[in-house]
Amino acid sequence: MRAFLISLLATLALVAACGDAEPADPALRTELLAMLKLDQEVRTLEASQEDWDRVEKANTDRMRQILDQHGWPGYELVGKDGAQAAWALVQHADRDLQLQKRGLELMRRAAEEGDADPSDLAFLVDRVRVAEGRPQVYGTQWETDPQGRWKPRTPIEDEAKVDDRRADAGLKPLREYLEELKSAG
User: Fold this and answer.
1) Coiled-coil region(s) at which residues (predicted)?
2) Is residue 105 within 8 Å of 98, Cβ to Cβ?
3) Among 104, 110, 182, 107, CA closest to 143
């Protein structure tokens, strides 16, 4: 849970730092940013489980509709911050693996076309693989054990080459990422 929150806070900082050209659908961008803001509030404040469940269900249902209507909401449609909000909302839909897998495939195509962030895609790849009990590709999903030590949520596939894959996706080396997790925790 702690790793999850740290990752989300880093995402919010990145979203806030991104500048945007005028997106094709500014209303959808505004909606995605509002959805992410509410998502973050229930995850980082002392929200009840009931509130968390309500927000997660509403966001998941709405993301399903958005994917049906638009495909992946990429940079061109909703701007960089809107696209990153969409990614975070799909990433957080942990109770709906099918939505995450669908979002992953749509986002993969968008990233190949330069309409989505490859580093965000890497996080979603690992999130889906962890949910399926499979090894991670990029080593983005970590948690703490009861003693507070960081450990990968599932093993990392071909760990000797993980930094090459991370670099290809625009991510920092794994060692630096872990240092950030440890210092934020």
Assistant:
1) none
2) no
3) 182
In order, the DSSP letters of 54-81 are: HHHHHHHHHHHHHHHHHSS--HHHHHHH
**Class of residue 5 by CB neighbours under 10 A (exposed 0-12, middle 13-18, buried 19+):** middle
Instruction: Tell me the per-residue pLDDT of 122-154, one tens digit each, with 9 for 90 and over.
Output: 999 999 999 999 999 999 999 999 999 999 999
The domain ranges of the chain are 2-184
* CB environment 134-161: b (16+ within 10 A), e (fewer): ebbbbbbbbeeeeeeeeebbbebbeeee
Residue where the block lists tokens 């670099």: 167
Alpha helical stretches, state H, the chain? 2-17, 26-44, 49-70, 75-91, 97-112, 118-131, 162-168, 174-184
75-125 residue pLDDT tens:
999 999 999 999 999 999 999 999 999 999 999 999 999 999 999 999 999
Q: What is the pTM of this model?
A: 0.86
